[in-house]
Design brief:
The complex is a heterodimer of chains A (371) and B (525). Chain A has helices at residues 24-48, 53-64, 67-92, 100-119, 126-155, 159-179, 209-230, 232-242, 244-249, 254-281, 292-302, 307-331, 337-357, and strands spanning 10-18, 358-366. Chain A has 371 residues and is mainly alpha-helical. In chain A, strands 1-2 form a two-stranded antiparallel sheet. The longest helix of chain A has 30 residues, at 126-155. Chain B has 525 residues and is an alpha/beta fold. Chain B has helices spanning 2-7, 57-64, 87-92, 110-114, 127-140, 156-169, 186-201, 213-219, 242-250, 313-320, 343-348, 358-362, 369-373, 391-404, 421-435, 452-467, 479-485, 508-517, and strands at residues 19-28, 31-41, 46-50, 72-77, 80-82, 95-98, 174-178, 205-210, 222-227, 230-236, 272-282, 288-298, 302-306, 326-333, 336-337, 351-354, 384-385, 388-389, 440-444, 471-475, 488-493, 496-502. Chain B is built from 18 helices and 22 strands. The chains are: A mainly alpha (371), B alpha/beta (525). The structure holds adenosine-5'-diphosphate and magnesium ion (MG).
């Protein structure tokens, strides 16, 4: 008689619970599943835009896996791998550095600066040119990363904003130099600098450039893997990212760990920049990077900040960047088509992180007091 | 039942309670947060719900607000049994809650915050009408609140008013306020109490959660005390005394005049390991949480810090542990001035700190047990050399910690977050005592949230350290525990050390009075 419950109705609801743990295996399966979904979703969009998704994907992958294209894929993957591995240092500390692009540009600018000096007859001799450009690019990239790191540590400035703004600063600085002081006088008025001499290029004698770059990226990946797993710095930087209270309690030098980690991030992005200017293009010019620093963000996330996985996810992005040109040339589809895929992968990565942390169950139940 | 009441002409017309909670049980992993709780709210009353941290007050109110569903028990609102599945259900029944932490969007204006998620707003809200409605309610309570102000620019007291407005516009007449005064200045608190009285005058019912006795005494009509998930006392406020409430809060079973026997003062030789003098420490709210505190811990001695929570104890030990910079005063550890020293330096000088809330401060739940063992010592030999960690060595030590301190786990590779509270605490203690040789152990609420057996084991470990000549400073919310462990007891009130009582002189009543009144009844050292 008094059991009058408030009016209700049948309802469907999704219950979201935090999942205590994910095994590495299910984590990989979730990531790959989400990746597949990203390609499916992009396919749907292509279809909707009046292209045949199946045709696009088929020609896309068969072309990319041909020897010539594969070389190009590897060349372009190298800077993405370096920058993405670098970002792992930032992200594992919870430092949301989205400034790899700017750090990469600073690497390009610094290396080019050395070469411009060299061509003008100053600076290092031929033997020292390569070490000089490597050091310059890494220091410049690292220093560009230090700025937001110090702003964060000293003033609590949000690094997402500062790193993003410094991207534009670096890109515009490159434009400024290329259009002005560093413009190649023998370049028929094009906005570009002098060509990098052979002595300033990373190469292994008798080996294609692509292999040399990939080897360098592989070495950096392996070293990073070891740093993360076996060094005090790698361990402490992970703690800083996971639990700031425990870090303080444990007496970690949080500031110094943050600064070191972000410097390494920037230095690796700078090294990526060196490969771009010295190897992929051969000189600095506006728009020298098609956004490798941004691709690296997604690649490092997709790889779950686990260096071996990041290595491969970066190669996937190398394929997409290379494939973009292909789409345009052979399928009459705008280059930005691949950006749809990239965006989908990015969304999928975010969803994958959520799925890894939560368990979703769909509850069917009658309504009680509420609806 | 309501009908029965209405039909049968009872001898005395008992007022129908607005809310009746009967036999409420709520379990969380490892704790019973509410253990067969009965709680009643009448119309027009201010009902103070008292209890120490972790007593289960918030949980009880979250149940009434539909955030948690109880494991057992019934809730009747205005005589009608209800099932609350979400705050939406509660709001519909006129129940509203203001959480301990404000749930406001700082970038939005007052009116936007108040009417966020408000039914019947329409597709295009008529903001000006809504604004004048807010102004009307606000002026009714004497608040000066601009509906167009950005919430981020408001003071804590004004934010509170915004939270209250959220409830009022939804027609709430049962208001649950969870520690509303913790962020307020004394003047704002007074203002809030005035508002509360006015609301009660309009027939609204208000539950005021607090752990401050004076507030309960000054504003409430009725007071209920919770301790460890149970109701230990509930009566009209005018019939309650402050002593009675404080003893109920900290441990009702202690009433009596038990004097603990003196015990052999182990190796205590009067050599101080810690000397704190005239220490003042800032609290999170920008007022001094510790004022001119003096404190000494000798070798082989346990000093307990007693006090109702929120009287500066935690800030005191955090300053000693290097986690808070003191404003004034001096801390000397084994003869070395360590005022303002970093946690790292303190650790190297022989201080070991067992933090409160082990899962938050003491471990990294996402990492494995053995990685957690390395947490504080990875940078030292023999756990690492030249920056390279020797994980084999760490694993050996972790195995020892797990077996000697009986951390219940199948493998040291398991995530530390999967351990129960007691096991986390044993892991922390075990790690600290295995990887370092402290001369001073500072333990903040080391048994909080542990079951009886686990607490006992922790106390045994502390006693063993004492007999080994270590100085021990321990915080506890449990007077029994303080009395059992301590050679001397320091009582804190309002951030001051109001008395130091020797073991032989300490009685629960004496401590209870000192803790609740801040008077040093008989201070001796
Ligand atoms: N969501 C939760 N999950 C697990 N334990 C909880 C949760 N909420 C509260 N508890 C535990 O329940 C007990 C009572 O907590 P709470 O109701 O917040 O106490 P109070 O508000 O009186 O300080 C504590 O031991 C607390 O750790
Ligand atoms: Mg609470």
């Amino acid at each position: 008689m008094l059991r009058r419950s408030l009016p209700g109705s049948l309802r469907l609801s999704v219950r979201v619970e935090r999942r205590p743990e994910v095994t590495p295996r299910s984590s990989i399966i979730i990531s790959l599943g989400m990746l597949l979904l990203a390609f499916l979703a992009s396919g749907l969009i292509f279809q909707f835009l009046g292209f045949s998704a199946l045709h696009i994907y088929r020609s896309f992958f068969t072309a990319l896996l041909s020897p010539i294209m594969l070389e190009e894929v590897f060349r372009r993957s190298a800077p993405i791998i370096l920058a993405a591995i670098g970002l792992c240092y930032s992200y594992r500390m919870g430092f949301w550095n989205i400034g790899a692009e700017g750090q990469l540009y600073m690497g390009m600018i610094a290396a080019t600066g050395v070469v411009v000096l060299y061509s003008a007859g100053y600076g290092p001799g031929e033997q020292l040119l390569l070490p000089a450009v490597v050091a310059a690019s890494m220091m410049a990239g690292g220093a560009w990363g230090l700025v937001p790191a110090i702003l964060r540590v000293r003033f609590g400035a949000n690094e997402i904003i500062t790193t993003l703004m410094l991207n534009y600063t670096a890109i515009l600085l490159a434009d400024f130099l290329v259009h002005g002081a560093w413009k190649d006088p023998a370049g028929y008025g094009f906005a570009q600098t002098v060509q990098f001499p052979a002595a300033a290029r990373i190469s292994i004698p008798g080996v294609p450039d692509a292999v040399a770059y990939l080897a360098l990226a592989l070495v950096v990946t392996a070293l990073t893997f070891l740093v993360f797993r076996f060094t005090v710095f790698g361990f402490e930087s992970k703690i800083v990212g996971l639990n700031i209270y425990a870090s303080r309690y444990a007496g970690l030098s949080i500031r110094s760990i943050l600064i070191r980690g972000v410097f390494i991030s920037g230095a690796l992005a700078g090294l990526a920049g060196l490969i771009v200017v010295s190897g992929l293009i051969g000189r600095l010019r506006p728009g020298a990077s098609p956004g490798y620093g941004y691709h690296a963000i997604i690649a490092s996330m997709l790889g779950g900040l686990y260096p071996p996985a990041v290595f491969f996810s970066s190669i996937l992005f190398g394929m997409l960047v290379t494939g973009g040109d292909l789409l345009q040339a052979s399928l009459q589809m705008p280059k930005s088509g691949v950006e749809i895929i990239m965006a989908m992968i990015f969304l999928a990565t975010i969803v994958a992180e959520f799925v890894k942390r939560h368990r979703l169950t769909i509850v069917v139940g009658g309504g009680g007091a509420g609806t | 039942m309501v009908e029965d009441l209405l039909e049968s002409p009872g001898p005395a017309p008992t007022p129908i309670p607005k809310v009746e909670m009967r036999g409420i049980v709520k379990r969380f992993p490892g704790v019973v947060a509410n253990d067969k709780v009965d709680f009643t709210i009448y119309a027009g009353e201010i009902h103070a719900l008292l209890g120490e941290n972790g007593a289960g007050k918030t949980t009880l109110m979250n149940i009434l607000y539909g955030i948690y569903t109880p494991d057992a028990g019934v809730i009747r609102v205005r005589g009608v049994p209800v099932r609350l599945r979400s705050p939406r259900d509660a709001i519909r029944l006129g129940i509203g809650m203001v959480h301990q932490d404000f749930r406001l969007i700082e970038a939005h204006t007052v009116v936007e915050n108040v009417f966020l998620n408000y039914d019947g707003l329409g597709f295009i809200p008529k903001w000006s009408a809504l604004e004048s409605r807010l102004e009307e309610i606000a002026s009714n309570y004497g608040w000066r609140l601009n509906p167009r102000a950005r919430v981020g620019d408001l003071s804590p007291g004004e934010k509170q008013q915004v939270e209250l407005l959220k409830l009022l516009v939804r027609g709430a007449d049962i208001l649950l306020l969870d520690e509303p005064t913790s962020v307020l200045t004394p003047i704002e608190t007074k203002m809030l109490f005035k508002t509360m009285r006015r609301m009660a005058g309009e027939g609204k019912s208000i539950v005021l959660i607090t752990h401050k006795l004076s507030e309960a005494m000054s504003v409430s009509d009725r007071v209920t005390v919770m301790r460890r998930g149970r109701i230990v006392l509930s009566k009209p406020t005018r019939e309650a005394t402050i002593e009675e409430l404080s003893t109920a809060m900290v441990g009702a079973q202690l009433i009596g005049n038990t004097v603990l026997e003196e015990r052999p003062t182990a190796p205590a030789d009067g050599v101080p390991t810690l000397q704190v003098s005239a220490l003042s420490v800032m609290g999170d709210e920008g007022v001094l949480a510790v004022r001119d505190a003096d404190l000494t811990v000798n070798r082989g001695e346990v000093v307990g810090v007693a006090g109702v929570s929120g009287n500066g104890q935690i800030e005191l030990v955090e300053a000693i542990a290097g986690l808070r910079k003191p404003v004034r005063g001096k801390i000397i550890l084994n003869g070395v001035d360590v005022t303002g020293a970093s946690p790292r330096r303190l650790m190297e000088l022989g201080l070991t700190y067992i933090p409160p809330e082990g899962k938050k401060w003491g471990i990294v739940p996402e990492l494995s047990i053995y990685e957690n063992v390395a947490l504080r010592v990875a940078r030292y030999e023999p756990y690492s050399r030249l920056g390279v960690i020797n994980w084999r060595r760490v694993a050996e030590v972790a195995e020892r910690v797990v077996s000697e301190f009986r951390v219940d786990t199948a493998s040291i590779k398991n995530r530390a977050g999967s351990l129960s509270g007691g096991n986390v605490q044993r892991l922390i203690l075990g790690r600290e005592l295995t990887t370092s040789k402290p001369s001073l152990l500072v333990a903040a609420y080391p048994t909080k949230g542990l079951d009886i057996a686990a607490s006992e084991q922790v106390r045994r470990i502390l006693s063993r350290l004492r007999s080994e000549g270590v100085g021990v400073l321990v915080l506890s919310e449990d007077l029994d525990e303080i009395l059992e462990l301590s050679d001397r007891i320091v009582v804190m009130y309002g951030g001051r050390v109001v008395g130091v009582v020797r073991r032989g002189d300490a009685t629960p009543e004496l401590l209870g009075v000192m803790m609740s009144r801040g008077v040093a009844v008989s201070a001796s050292t």
